[in-house]
Amino acid sequence: MTPHRRAGEPGGDDDLRMVSWRTLWGGHVSAARLPPILLAVVAVLALLLWLGDLFGLGESVAQALAEDGVRRVVHALLEWTAALLAAFLAVLALSRAAMVPEVTQRDPTVVILAATLPFVALLDAWSARALLGPTLGTGGPEEAEQLLGWTASRFLIALGPLIGAVLAPRRRPVVAKRIVVPLAALGSAALALVALVAGGWLAPPALHRAGALVPRPFELLPLALFVVAGLLFFPRLHRARPTVLGHALVVSTIPQALCQLEAAFAPSGADLDPRMAGLYLLKLLAYATLLCGMVVDYVARQRSEHSMSVEYESAQRELTKQTQELERVDRELVVQASKRRHAERSLRMLEKAVETMSIGVSITDLEGTLLYVNPAGAQMFGYAVDELLGRPADLVGAEAPAARPLEAWADHQPWTHERVVSGRDGRRVPVRLVADAVRDENGSILALVTSCEDITERRRVEQMKHDFLSTVSHELRTPLTSIIASLGLLESSSLVADPAHRRELLEVANRNSHRLLQLINDLLDLQKLTAGKISLEIVPLEVRPTLEEALAGIRAFADELQVELRLVAAATGLRVLADRRRLVQVLLNLLSNAIKFSPTGQTVETGATAGDGRVVLYVADRGPGIPEAFRSRLFEKFSQADASSRRTSGGSGLGLTIAKELVEAMGGSIRFDTEVGIGTTFYVELPAVATAAGS
Amino acid sequence: MQAASLRRILLIEDDRDIQKVARLVLENLGGFEVAIASSGREGLARAPAFRPDLILLDVMMPELDGPGTLEALRDGPLADTPVVFLTARAQPDEVVEYRALGALDVIVKPFDPMTLCRTVEDIWQRYRSGGGA
Fold it and tell me: Which fold is adopted by the domain B8-129?
């Protein structure tokens, strides 16, 4: 907290002092009014003393104390009191200056007094001792010593503070704070010494000329100094640093000056002059003024410091409270920042999740403008994300609230429907849309979120299923047509009388029944194969017997179509890993196709070759070859390219599909070579049995 | 158009057994004069010489299928000859498609041999009274 001080407001120090004074004086006397009161009291007291002396008050007192010795003791006691007072003041000032170093900066008066008063006290003590000398039996020229001590003391107390006052107002001390007091004390000691030496040199005749107009001319020098200090330098010092002690210093110059005036012009000049008691009293009054100032100042400062410390403590408490509040706010901010960081992370994760989805996700505002679209949602229709933002929602199939009545959104159920959206290149994309409203706390719609799934593939699969079902239906109905028709005709025997016709109809019914069975078996096989549910019994298998078994199974069909079958001898001794029954089924399919497509009288050749850990079985025909356009669809279900109308039986259109699935399930592969007009060869490659030995 | 009664029928069908039974039914039961073609192409080749009153056309045939054959017929000299599809592929949407192609009607396989001739006659009569003239 920065303190603000408005213009015109009193300084902080003054404020504190005002408060302190009020508390000290119970609020009756303000700090501002005290100095004039002090001034008045001291001035009146000093004047009374001085006038009292002038009008013989001191003389009457002296006469009352008739005895010379008693008078001397009274004077000594007064002087002792002054010395003790000075010493007490010195201790106070020294302790202030020593204990509170900043006082030396704030209040130079304390420093001045602390430096000067110890020596003043010493000189006063010396003076008192001299007064008591005869009484105590110490002997010596007591009057001269007493005078010397008195004059030196007066000189020091006048000159020391004056020098201090002259030097103190300098803003920047040339010496460090902590050595100001010792330095000033050293100066004072030097002054005291100078005063003593000078006094000793002059004393006693020079100090006291009895009967002269000015009996003690040397008292004039401190007088002048007091006047100058009291009128000029002390007030200046006081104005620069207004303190009670400073004020007391100014006020104290009044009794000091009066004291000097009386000392200088004392008519008798004798130290034991009864009027001299007034001098001591004036001096005491001056000291007392200083003491009063210092005590009041000290107490005030103590109070002020206490009050400062009270205010400091309250400020400290306030600060602590504010610090705690700040810490609480800080913790809250930390928590909020952490929460925010957490939320940001969650958001980032969600955003990434939405970005990586293959389903389009878009958000639209209430006007149907795109606020967000994920990459998949844009790509689906040939756009980039950036070019879509802010554009109409229907570009990417996203819903606008206007897409249906507002009440419809209110049921809080996602709206699912399918429609076709035109992409950028005009491509029509069938999509499945799931739209729902995003609401605020009050339930008002903020935006709509639409997930958009491209169902082209699903539609294709559905179409494929539909086509397959349609084809299967067709394939089942075709043999049934022959069966139902021939049996129907046979039933009404009267209509078909010819026995040859009847036999033929029976053959048709029989053949087509088998064809139907074959078709059903093939469909079931295929279903099992595509579902991966066919169970194979893979065993080491001699190739040649397997081929022979297949040939035996198809021979009747070949004979019927007058196609020759040939087994190539090279197959001898080869062994493969396969399921025997299933391998025979594959071979029968291939042989059946080969026979069907072979011209009458041609040969279908089968055999096997080995190499590289594999055995290749082959079935070759000399048929018309497979048209180029059909080759890629050869292994697809119900794909038949043959135009050969004479061969209709035995083909379900699933044979090659099943053959391929079976071979692959046995770990092999199937491929073909074909050349239009030359023939076709199918190859079945299977894993060889490693230990197979050629014969 | 040229014939008041139905006499000559061309059956275009790739399944040999259906050829056999259909011929027996149409010739013995209906007394029609029947010609058979095993593929769309063969049908297109035989039709101008045979000059059928009506063509029974299979849909699922290799190379040139039923709809393709119908289209080719419409471009040839027998553009006005009524065509009836005889097919095992007759789901409702497919029937709609065949009619859209210009087929007079659709007979679904397997057909009842006893009523086939009657059905064909009915279709013919409807054609005569409605679209012919």
Answer: Rossmann fold (3.40.50)
